[in-house]
Amino acid sequence: MSSAAREILGLGLCVVGWVGVILACGLPTWQVSAYIDGHIVVAQTTWEGLWMNCVVQSTGQMQCKLYDSILALEPHMQAGRALTVLVALLGLVALMVTVVGAQCTTCVRAGKAKSWIVLAGGVLYILCGVLVLIPVCWFANIIISGFYNPKVPNSMKREMGAALYIGWAATALLLLGGSLICCSCSCPGEGEGGFPVKYSASTRRPASSGEYDKKNYV
After folding, report:
1. Which of 80, 85, 162, 207 lies 20 to 30 Å from 127, alpha-carbon distance?
2. Whose CA is closest to 114, among 125, 123, 105, 126?
3. How far apart are CA 58 and CA 56, in angstroms?
4. Do 3 and 66 meet the contact criterion of CB atoms below 8 Å apart?
C-alpha cells in the first residue's frame, strides 16, 4: 500500500472515530439500569449520560431531564464532560492540520514542512484516542465496582450502556487511524539536504570521417 493510500485510509478511520466520540458524548446511555431480580416485566428503565438522565416507561414513553448543576456532579461525570468536549474540538483541529499536510492537497509545498504537518495531525488523533479512553474506562470501572458491591442495593446497580462501547470503538479507530497517518508520512529530512543529480544525454556528434572528435575525450 502506498503512503498516500495509507494516509487517506488513516484519515477516514480517524474521521469515523471522531464522529463516534461526538455521538458517545451526546448519548444518555453511559450507564443503564441493571436487572438482576429476575423480573420479566419491568415498569421503567433508567438511562444516565453526561448531560442528562432519561426514564423510559414500559409503554415506550421517555422523559429526559438535564442535570441542574454542573458543580453538583460527581468527579467522573465532570471529567467525562470536559474530556469528550476537548476531544471533539481537538479532533476538528487535527482534521484541518491533516488535510493541510496531506499528499493529495496543495496547501503546502511538498517537502519537510509538509511531512511535519501531517505527522502533527496523526499525533493529535492518537492523543484524541488516549483522552477518550480515560473517561470511558473510568465509567466502566465505577459501574463494575458498584455492580459487584454487596452494599449497593439492586435498584441502584447499573450496567454499561451503548455509549461506552461506542467510545471504545472510537478510541480504537482514532489510535489506528492516527498510527497510519504517522506511518504514511516520510521521515522529516529523509532524502533532503543533498543536491539533486541531473543527467543529460550526450551531445557529441561524430566527425565527418565517422569517428568522434578527439576533443570530446579531453
Report:
1. 162
2. 105
3. 7
4. no
